[in-house]
Write a structure and sequence with these properties.
Layout (H helix, E strand, L loop, with lengths): L1 H20 L13 E2 L10 E5 L5 E3 L2 E3 L1 H14 L5 E5 L5 H13 L5 E3 L2 E2 L4
Parallel strand pairs: 1-7, 2-5, 5-6
Antiparallel strand pairs: 2-3, 3-4
Length: about 120
Amino acid sequence: MIIPMIDIMFFLLVFFMISTLYMVNLKTVHVAVPKAEHAETQMNVTYLVTMKKDGTLYLEDKPISQDVLLTQAKAEKERSAKFAVVLRADEGIDYGNVVQLLDAFRSAGIDRLGLAAESGGKS
């Protein structure tokens, strides 16, 4: 009589383990990120920066100035060798603003930078 109950418990355990893999809660501000055919999904992002069309910056879902952002990034880089920054820039933003921010990160000593894109674009 206990065998069917154990089977059900194992089924529920596997179901919840698999379903939690798809429950990723990213704290970000909504922007229209460009699409790319060969975009990769990375779940171990340590520093998620969003740049809206008007040039405002957000660290996760909180507004932040560029100076404070760079200061915090430097501090995080000193704490962790695997520190990485991913920039989510709006699709319609001026390319010069993106390059300027990436250059500022490089000047601050952060060399692991990435640009976010959504999967499904055509080359």
